[in-house]
Each structure stands twice: as structure tokens, then as C-alpha cells.
Amino acid sequence: MMLQLENTLFIITMLLYFASMILYFVFIVAKKDLIPKIAILLQLAGFVLHTAALICRGIGAGRLPLTNQYEFATSFAWGLCLVSLIFIFRFRFPVLGAFSAPIIFLIIGYASMQSKEVRELMPALRSNWLGFHVSTAIIAYGSFGVSFVLSVIFLLREKIQSGAFLDRHIPQREKLDLISYRSVSLGLLFLTFTIVTGAIWAEQAWGAYWSWDPKETWSLITWIVYAIYLHLRIRRGWQGRSAAIFAAIGFVCVMFTYIGVNTFLPGIHSYA
Amino acid sequence: MSILKKIWKFISSMRFAILLLAVLALACSVGSMVTQGQSFAWYAQRYSERTAALILALHLDDAFHSWWFLLISAFLCINLLLCNILRLPQLILQYKSETSPASVLSGKGDISSNGISDPEAVFRHLRMPAPTSCRTDDGRNAFFSVKNPVGIWGAWICHLGILLLIAGFTLGQTTQQQFTVYGVPGQTCPIGDTGLLLTFDAFDVALRPDDTVEQYTASFTVRSTEDGSSRSASASVNHPASLYGMKFYQNSVGWAETVTVTQDGQFLQQQILCTGETLPVENKPDLIIDFTAFYPDLVMEAGSMPRTATGSLNNPATLYTVYYQDQILGMNILMPEEELTIDEYTVTFSDPQMYSLIQIKRDVFTPLAFAGGLIIMLGLFCSFYLQTEKLWAVEVSPGCWTVSGCSRKGGVLFREKFLREVS
Question: Which residues contact B262 (CB under 8 A, 6 or more apart)?
């Protein structure tokens, strides 16, 4: 019953995200100021239903829906949508939605292609740390996704000539750079939470808090790449364009940690 | 500048830190791409002999313990340590000056606004702490407020956490004791050279209605051969037990069977074997029985390897291998009622049961590493979310004030917020 409801909500969520993405696109092309408000409302509605879908799955499965590829992918899309909405409202920046919506739609589309079968958890996954570890990863990945989007906007803003519409809806580069920095900061803090809670859990479950498993190693690589980003920003001449490129590279590491490692480098996180 | 000074400056510089981080990330990615801990033959089969030789020559088969990886890590520690030592006096001075009126009032604001009649309202709207009254050098009324002065310590705290974490990890890796014992209830195993013996009392596998495993719980007693004391405990997955200063983890499971050998119908020997273990025949040691695998619910399909459908004993079967003088004599699957006959010897496998593998570890530096991790989080939080902001107001003429402010990392966002609140 709950899982059927979850499926229905998931499909409506996908449709809402798709509609919001199209509206954002129309907004960019038609340059009508009313459109982003409707697009944000649709994204917000999608987010609410997405949350409801996750709750239904959690109730239906009798556990947190964070343990397989489908569950993590849909949660990743949820996290990206959450952070994106927070940044849209916090910085009054609706164009951010225009660039994040396609990524959210891609990730939720990827989720829809995964098996939705609910499986019982293996003993190692039956831990309270699961919630902390994976939910912090979702926020971290969502934040890095937003920083990637902001970097793309930054780089595009360099290429596109200024105009009244652009100036009204896209912040100046200095502000974009700073918002991107805020997003990376949030992501790095949560990624650190993810790694530390994962280490504490691994110590309890496997008797070793660090095993150089590919997933662990790539999380560390991602952490290092964003640490380099933060250090480079302090150096003169590295803010702006170079930092934006580096933040984009960081997100490539995030995606490799998420999908690439599962596909090419199996390890003790193979169930993830 | 002498060459030594140049080296010292470079080693403690941020440029060197960035370089080391980049090299470390590259080293980690290489280590994750190359399968670790394999032999030359394995790499040669997978890649080529030349690549295999290169992997071994560069220690890529054990990248995370190789000399070059340790060297990068050591340089990173030195860089972090120097950075923290050299920055400490500057930070103490900076922290003191952040809160001193003379320093705040003489500071260059990111933004100012003139002609403010109610400056305290600006402080309130910008959610600054209660301002402190003071006077400027030329005797004018002024007040100021500093928010989150502790924020300047964020990076320093984070670096300290990284150092503690690396120290805890390295000390743990070099001093920890780790043992593995496995067995079925009733069996006793020595725990390395610790003088402790572990006896398995019970092993419980909790199954769900769909036959999937919910939990493995091993109960055991540990006895000291030195003082004769003993303690009992249970360990299940995610719930290790602590005894005699060591942690006991329910790490893995497998199947064990009782193997009985008779010769011309006369009992010869009996032993419990776990999968993968071998039993040399007592009076003919060249003849070895290998308990290769066990399938609790055997499924045999044409053209595919045997497999088990579930973890329950619905259709148990044993895969054995017999060796004679290091040559394989035979390999086959035995059903429960079947016997294996080799000349005058008869071998039976019976009483299948699950065995528990317990990992035992003593690592006194684990808390240090975890403390390091927590300190890194604290440092990052201070750095990102306790951003130092300063606001000060100076009375230009009676009832008319100039309010100025600056933020360490707020930049344009702080300026926008300031202008919004002032307006």
C-alpha cells in the first residue's frame, strides 16, 4: 500500500520536476519575470511530494530509505533540490533553479531506472549510524551539486554579454563566487560529517575505521579536492574563474565517488 | 635569502600544502584504481608482464603503505605542523586586536553609511552582540561590536584535527594488535600470543521469515592462562564486545562440518572442519581431505556452477577435494547420505553448522583519531559558520553617526546585508 503510494508520488514528483525544468527554460528564452515564480512553486511542490514519497518508502520498508542505488539516487535528487531551494530563497536567485532543475531531473531519472525492490537489510547495515552517515552524504552531495551549478553560471556569465535581464536575474561574478564558496563550505562540512560518522560506524561493524576501500578513498579524494579549492581561493588571482573550474572538477569527483566507484571499483561498499 | 631559509619558507608555505594535497589526491586515486595486495602472476594475467613489473617496482600493489605514500603524508604533517606553529602567535595577536576598540575603530570598513540617527538599530538588525561604548582618539563618542571573533581560529583548529587524526591513525597502525579466531560452539582457540583463550559458547543466526539473516550473535568466554580469570560476552554485527582491553567483532561466518574417517570400517579419526580447511588422514598424511565449499540449499543448473538458493539447510551438499601427494585425486559434491570412499578409507561429512569468525583488536589510539575527526568538524564549522564580523559607529555631529562594518569572509553578501538593514 505504502510502496504503491510511494510509486505514484515518485512519478508525480518526476513530472513536477520536469515541468519546472521546462518553465525555467522558457523563462531563460522568453525573459518573462513571472515565469520563475511558477517554476519555483512547481519545484517546491515537487520537493514536498518527493519528501512524502521518501516518507512512504521509509514506512513501507520499515527503515530509512537510504540503502540501495534507487534509494540513494532519489535521496540525492531530494538533497540537491533541498539545497537548491535553500540557496534560491536565501540569495533571491531564481536562475539557480533553471540550472539545477535539469541535474535534479537527470538524477531522479537515473533513480527511476534502478530496481525499486525493497530488500531487507544485511546485518552490517542495521545500525543507527546509517541515518547519520547517508543523510549527511545526501546534503554534502546536494551542496556540491549546487556549487557545480553556480560554477557553470559563473563561467557562462563571463561569456554572455551583460544586459538588463541578465543583470536583474544573475548576480555579479563576485557574488556568484561567494555563493559558490558558501555552497562548497556546506558540502565540505557535511562530507566531513559523512566520513567521520562512516569511520565510527565502520569501527563498530568491521573493526576498522579506515580500510582504504575505494568508496572511502574517493570520499577522501573529493574532500582533498575541495580542500584545495578552499586554499586556492585564499591565494591572489585564484578567486573567480579558476575557483569555478576547480569547483566543477570537485563535482566530477563527487559523481565518480557516487556512480563510478560502484561501477568500476567494487569494495566493501558494493551494496551502496 | 639563504637556501635553507628558502626551503624552510617553502615547506611551511600554503603553496607547498596545495601541491602536497594535489599529489596526495593523485596517489589515492592511483591506489584505488590498482587492485591492492595481489601477486605478480595476478597482475600479469590482468594487465601484462611489463605492467605487473612496473606495479611491483612502484609498490602500487600496496600503495597506501608504500614509502612514497608515507613520504607525502609525512611532508603534509610537517607542513601542517609548521603552518600551525608559525600562525599561532599571529592568531593570538589577531584575536586580541579583533576585540580591542582601538583596533576596531582604526580599521578599514568594507562599507560605511553616514547620517545615521539610530545606530543601535543597525546593530540590532544586523544581529550583532550588544555594542561596547568607547571614544575615538580625537574624543568622539563611539561604540562597536564584534561577532564571532573565534571564527578566525577555524582553519587552525581544522589543521590541528587533521594532525591528531593522522597521528592517531599512524600510531594505531603501528602499535595495534589484531587477531582472528573462528570456530563452532564448544571449540577453544588461542588469541595469538596474548595468553588468552576464547571458547565459543553459542552462535545464533537470527533469520527473518523470508530466510534472510537479521543478525549473527556469537557468545563466548575468554580465559586468561596467566591468572585463570575468565569473562563471558556476546558480540553481534555492529555490537562488538570489550574484554581484557580488546574489542571482539562478529566479523564473518561460514559453514563447518564434522568429518569422520574410517579405515576398513574401523573408526580412525574425527574433526570439525570449517570451509577451506583440510584434514590429512592420520596414518597416511599424503592423503588430504579438503572441505572446499558447502551449499546449504544446493541448486544445480546445467552449464552453471553449483550455488545455494537460500541460507537454510533445505538441500545441503558438500563440495570436497581429495589430494594425494599434492596432486588432485578427485573433486565432487556429496549429499548428506553419501560417503566418499578412497581405497580402504571412507570419509563422511555430517552435522553441518555455522561457524563464527571473531576479529579481535586492541588499538588504544582509535579515540585519538576520532577526536581528530571531531576537531576537524569543529574547525570547519568555526571557519564557515562563525565568520567574524565587526561593526562600529562614530558620532560625527550630535545625533548624527557614521556606521561602518567589515566581515572576514562575507564580502559582497555582507555589504548587501549592511545596506539593506541601513536603508
Answer: B268, B345, B346
Mean pLDDT of chain A: 91
B71 assigned to some structural domain: yes
pLDDT greater than 80 at residue A271: no
Q: Tell me the DSSP string of B265-295.
A: TEEEEEEEEETT-EEEETTEEEEEEEEEEEE
Q: What is the DSSP letter of A265?
A: -
Q: DSSP H helical segments within chain A, as ranges? A: 2-30, 35-61, 69-90, 95-112, 129-159, 164-169, 173-206, 214-234, 241-255, 261-264
DSSP calls for B15-69: HHHHHHHHHHHHHHHHHHHSPTT--HHHHHHHS-HHHHHHHHHTTGGGGGGSHHH
CB of B33 within 8 Å of a chain A CB? The answer is yes
**In order of start, what are the domains of chain A with their CATH numbers?**
1-115 (1.20.120), 124-272 (no CATH)
Domain boundary among B298, B333, B352: B352
Chain B (303-362) residues lying within 8 Å, Cβ to Cβ, of chain A: 359, 361
3-state secondary structure of A117: coil
Long-range contacts of residues B148-151, Cβ cutoff 8 Å, at least 24 apart: B148/B386, B148/B387, B148/B388, B148/B389, B149/B95, B149/B98, B149/B99, B149/B388, B150/B95, B150/B382, B150/B386, B151/B382, B151/B383, B151/B386, B151/B387, B151/B388, B151/B408
Contacts 24+ apart (CB under 8 A), B201-204: B201/B232, B203/B353, B203/B354, B203/B355, B203/B356
Output the pTM of the full model: 0.91
| B128 in reach of chain A (CB within 8 A) | no
Distance CA(B45)–CA(B60), nearest Å, equals 16
CB-nearest partner of A231 from B14, B32, B384: B14
Q: By residue range, what is the domain housing residue B415?
A: 100-148+387-422
Whether residue A206 and residue B169 make contact (CB cut-off 8 A), yes or no, is no
Residue B211 lies in a domain: no
- pLDDT above 80 (res A268): no
Q: How far apart are CA A147 and CA A156, in angstroms?
A: 14
Quote ipTM for the complex.
0.92
For residue range B357-404, list pLDDT tens digits in order: 999 999 999 999 999 999 999 999 999 999 899 999 999 888 899 999
Across the interface, which of B208, B238, B416 has its CB nearest the CB of A204? B238
